[in-house]
Amino acid sequence: MDRPDPVLEAITGTAGDGSAGIDRQHCIPGVTAYAIRSADGDALQFSLPVILCRPLLTEIPLNPRGSAGAVALLIERIKQKAATDPALGPLAAKGTRFPGKYAANTEPYTLVGSPDALASDLWHADNRNYADARGIHLLLRGVVPFPATVSPVAVARVAETTAALIAAVQKIVFTFPARVFEDAWIAVLDQELLRDRLPDLGLVAFVGDGTRFARACTQYRCYYRTAGPKPGTNIPFSCPVELEPVEIELQASNRVITGLGVRRREVFAVAGSNAQGKTTFLEGILSGVDTHAPGDGRELAVTFPGVRTAEAMNCKLAGSDISMFFSALPPGIGGTVTSAFGMGSGSMTMAAQVQQAIARSAPLLIIDEDRAAPNLLVKSCLQRDEVTPLSRILAEDRGRLGDTALLFAACAMDTLIAEADRIMVLDQHIASGLDRKIFRKRVAEMAQRVVEGMEERPGV
Predict the structure, then answer these.
(1) Which of 1-10, 151-160, 312-321, 416-425 has the highest average model confidence (pLDDT)?
(2) What is the mean pLDDT of residues 429-452?
(3) Cα 7–43–147 angle (5° rounding)?
(4) pLDDT grade, residue 356 (50/70/90)?
(5) Is the alpha carbon torsion for 203, 114, 188, 215 positive or negative?
(6) How far is residue 280's CA from residue 271's CA, in Å, rounded to a whole number?
(7) What pTM was computed for the model?
(8) Who wins on pLDDT, 149 or 392?
(9) Stretch 261-268: mean pLDDT, rounded?
(10) pLDDT tier at 15 (50, 70, 90 boundaries)?
(11) What confidence tens digit (pLDDT) does each residue in 62-93 have?
């Protein structure tokens, strides 16, 4: 024997004791079930689909949509135990020369579900790790030391190790308190049901008071949607009275919470000086399409599916409609304003993204000033007449946004902020509301000071 194929046969032949064992229905060689030598040749990486016959759906008679919360909690508990329980050591590659190479397998994870394929290298609740009428299904991936030569003794040792791993997981699953499972279940169910109800509430997004949006990235969770909560200073959100907080009863826990509701078809501005949390707030809204585990900080931030973003980037246009913003095409761009072709500038690409979102009836469009084309947002004295910036569209023809709500963050885009239905100002990461009339007066006064300043310095 010179290949580890016999190992797969040996470990998938584990019989179990009737309450735990290999999940034969989901045992797909090379996909969910495999045993392969590591790149350095000193270890064996394996994957095993197992089933734990604890009747969770019967034991906790709640809507099954929340069961992912229980599975996610269970997985995190197993990861934690892997640091101290030798039988769970393979999950953390204990005993191998380079266990750090496999640390992703036990990396903490606070997402329970997502409409997108996020963090596929991490172990978390998904379509391979779930609960159904048969029990709890888990895909166990681990790494064990393995000799250069495959021998019957080596195969038997690996089979014993994986059998002990399954037994250790079984012990955790069957001793886990139902009450703790239920808490995580209800937390997920609250989010799922609230997301469904948003249209009936006239909302496209909701941010509950107490939400903590700030994130801390790691080597394996370096994307804001998958990153965990930021330790230390992480200021909780509180909806200002001026922005008319919404009161909502959560259907699973029967709790009544308050927070900010972003309304259907409204234009909502998140304003403030530099580095005050505007982008973090937008990222939190975008993360609301995901379902979060208790402790993530974003459990009460819920966004209806279909949210879109628009940002400046040089991309090729392939029949893009930019007619909302451009009445004529610049040199080098072919076609027409309703079907443009060629390498588009940042503003043209962003225009196409905005129009595509509106054409597809996106419930919410998000724009961040930091990633936007300023000349598509506000008017300049140098701008040609064939370009209509977003601020002018909002002032003169709001209906062109259709049913799409607009949420944007801005600091220097005063004339754009002035067209928002509601203005939220972030200062030291704390939110307050600002009346649009007051803001417009401030803009006019500042503009006057700028003009007067230029007149006083004619020789500059």
Answers:
(1) 416-425
(2) 92
(3) 70
(4) very high
(5) negative
(6) 12
(7) 0.92
(8) 392
(9) 98
(10) low
(11) 999 999 999 999 999 999 999 999 999 999 99
Q: Which of 193, 199, 206, 170 is nearest to 51 (CA)?
A: 170
Q: Under DSSP, is residue 238 helix (H, G, I), strand (E, B) or coil? A: coil
Task: State the virtual CA torsion across 349, 353, 355, 359 in degrees, nearest 10.
Answer: 150
The tokens of 195 are what? 């997301």
Structure tokens at 261: 């509701």
Paired tokens of 64: 């099954």
Token pair for 350: 């962003």
* DSSP calls for 272-335: -STTSSHHHHHHHHHHTTSEE-TTSS-TTEEE-TT-EE-----EEEEEE--TTTBSSPPTT-EE
In percent, the amount of the chain with pLDDT more than 70 equals 97
Indicate the pLDDT class of residue 147, thresholds 50, 70 and 90: confident
Distance between CA atoms of residues 231 and 229, nearest Å: 6
Q: Taking Cα atoms as reference points, which of 98, 94, 101 lies closest to residue 42?
A: 98
Class level of CATH domain 200-307+362-460: alpha beta
CB-CB contact of 223 with 121 (8 Å):
no
Going from the C-alpha of 163 to that of each of 90, 158, 272, 293, the distances in angstroms are 11, 9, 57, 30
What was the pLDDT predicted at 16? 63
- CB count within 10 Å of CB 306 equals 15
C-alpha torsion sign, points 53, 54, 60, 61: positive
- For residue 12, what is the enclosing H or E element? helix 5-12
What is the spatial distance between Cα 459 and Cα 178, in angstroms, rounded to a whole number?
A: 78
Q: Quick check: 434 and 425 in contact, CB under 8 A?
A: yes
Q: What's the pLDDT score for residue 6?
A: 81
Task: For residues 88 and 46, give the distance between their C-alpha atoms in angstroms, rounded to a whole number.
Answer: 14
- Contacts of residue 330, Cβ cutoff 8 Å, sequence gap at least 6: 345
Domain ranges of the chain: 5-183, 200-307+362-460
How many whole angstroms separate alpha carbon 290 and alpha carbon 300?
11
**Cα-Cα-Cα-Cα dihedral sign, residues 398, 400, 405, 406:** negative
Q: Which of 340, 360, 362, 336 is nearest to 349 (CA)?
A: 340
Distance CA 330, CA 323 (A): 13
Alpha-carbon distance of 376 to 391, in angstroms, equals 8
* Alpha carbon distance 20, 54 (integer Å): 9
Q: Cβ-count burial of 242 within 10 angstroms (0-12 exposed, 13-18 middle, 19+ buried)?
A: middle
Owner of token pair 């005050």: 276
Q: Please say if the pLDDT value at position 1 is more than 50.
A: no
What six digits make up the tokens of 130?
Answer: 């779930």
Nearest to 144, CA basis, from 13, 20, 7: 7
